[in-house]
Design goal:
about 475 residues; alpha+beta; Aminoglycoside 3'-phosphotransferase, Chain: A, domain 2; seven-stranded antiparallel beta sheet; 13 helices; about 20% strand; globular
Length: about 475
């Protein structure tokens, strides 16, 4: 295995064209594929690296491919530049039964003709190879495997792929580490590595510190005009053994008719501690009228687009718009806000409670659909608070729509818990909090209308409340 990791050869010519018809069928079926509903019209190879030669019993390729899709009638017929995806392609003569769910297809042409290709993360040896590369800080072609020299990575840890639906892919090694591989990637500094590293330097115990990470440097062999910035492909962090995510825990308490107030308060404290550490570790800025005007305009534009797409929103549009205009009015009067780096997509599913009862925050990637530059911009901390308040509401209404009191108690406890280390209750900034919560609810309406229509009543209940309220 170590010999394979020193190989620097790239993939053979014709590899992508031979995989093209199989990937067009397989890729849109993956949970992490962002372009659902639009056909894939072709692929561009950004980078290809041979990790194990296909002449062996098992071949392994690491690919970065850009999937091209039409924008649709509303936006013209031209192809979109395409999202870039990270793929790990295993190659075998035939798949054993245990790997049947990983099948991509049988290659009929090109350098792999007659072989079977599959999603390699389902296979033990490719997953072991990734950990060994991180442990030894290997460099393979344009791939760099890097690590924190102060943390030990033991060899021989048994990998298992997490099969729950995710927007990325995760492999757990023993009960020691979890490797998150980003699927939809963009060039530049990814906050899912940047922020945990900053928090580790700040000594914040609420976020597992990165142990190792995988980066790709486009080497020009694909002949594409890709940016020179590296791609962050994955992060290895300590695995919190026996931890339960906040969403699962909340639903469990709801099903039992149990309260969640103590946990919500503890979550508020954990969030504030992370925000305080980020404020120490990274620069803060002041948002004045010009910056707030751009923020309000963006929120208003998203509302108008959602109203156009979801007719059920139309009766509420004036009231929802007032949440944004109220914020703009305060900014016009000279009110300013402090902004800093935040989580960016905080909800119950991004929080883990250890068996000892300690809460951790994970997944600092932000909302993947938003541009990377936007995800890395400083924001008011109430953006994260609003996301968590919406998450309590989602949990309560998904179990019993007629019992909103559970969410109300959790929301109050979370804000009170946040105020303890932060020194300020988020509810003392009601206009900004209402604007962010309204923006989030509008996004939820659009998402549910497109992907889960049966869930649409959940955010619509919040829309009804927010449209008539000048408080949180």
């Amino acid at each position: 295995m170590s010999e394979a990791l020193t190989r620097t050869v790239t993939a053979p010519p014709g590899l992508l064209s031979s995989l093209d018809p199989l990937l067009r069928e397989w890729l849109p079926r993956q949970r992490w594929f962002a372009g659902k509903g639009r056909p894939v019209t072709g692929f561009t190879l950004v980078q290809a690296t041979e990790l194990l030669p296909p002449s062996s019993k098992l071949g392994l390729y690491h690919l970065l491919v850009r999937a091209h899709q039409p924008l649709g009638p509303a936006l013209g017929a031209a192809d979109h530049p395409g999202d870039c995806y990270q793929l790990l392609i295993g190659v075998r003569e035939a798949l054993p039964p245990r790997l049947a769910p990983a099948l991509i297809g049988h290659v009929t042409q090109g350098p792999l003709a007659g072989r079977t290709v599959y999603e390699a993360l389902h296979d033990t040896r490719p997953a072991e190879l990734l950990l060994e590369a991180l442990r030894t800080q290997a460099r393979v072609g344009g791939l760099r495997f890097e690590r924190d020299p102060h943390q030990e990575i033991r060899s021989g840890l048994v990998p298992r792929l997490i099969t729950a639906e995710q927007s990325n892919s995760s492999v757990v090694y023993g009960d020691t580490f979890i490797l998150k591989l980003l699927r939809r990637i963009v060039p530049g500094i990814n906050p899912d590595l940047e922020l945990p590293l900053a928090l580790a330097r700040a000594g914040c115990p609420r976020v597992p510190p990165p142990t190792a990470w995988l980066v790709a440097e486009p080497d020009g062999t694909a002949g594409t005009a890709e940016p020179d910035e590296p791609f962050v492909l994955g992060v290895l962090q300590p695995f919190v053994q026996g931890a339960t995510d906040g969403w699962e825990l909340a639903l469990r308490n709801l099903a039992k008719g149990e309260d969640f107030v103590a946990e919500a308060r503890a979550l508020g404290r954990a969030t504030a501690e992370v925000h305080t550490a980020l404020a120490r570790a990274l620069p803060m800025v002041t948002l004045g009228h010009a910056q707030l005007r751009l923020m309000v305009d963006g929120m208003t534009e998203r509302l108008e687009a959602a109203v156009h797409a979801v007719p059920a929103l139309r009766p509420y549009a004036p009231g929802l718009r007032s949440a944004f205009t109220a914020l703009g009015d305060l900014a016009a009067e000279g009110r300013t806000w402090t902004a800093q780096r935040v989580h960016g997509d905080l909800h119950l599913g991004q929080c883990l409670r250890s068996p000892a009862g300690d809460w951790s925050l994970i997944d600092f990637e932000g909302e993947p659909a938003r541009p990377l530059a936007e995800r890395r911009m400083p924001q008011p901390v109430v953006r994260d608070v609003a996301g968590m308040l919406r998450s309590f509401d989602y949990a309560a209404r998904s179990v019993d729509p007629a019992q909103p009191e559970w969410a109300e108690r959790c929301r109050a406890a979370y804000c009170s818990g946040y105020a303890e280390p932060a020194g300020r209750d988020p509810r003392t900034d009601p206009v900004m909090l209402r604007a962010y919560e309204t923006d989030k609810a509008v996004y939820e309406v659009l998402y549910e209308a497109r992907h889960r229509p049966e869930w649409l009543p959940v955010p619509l209940a919040a829309v009804h409340r927010l449209a008539v309220s000048d408080q949180t």
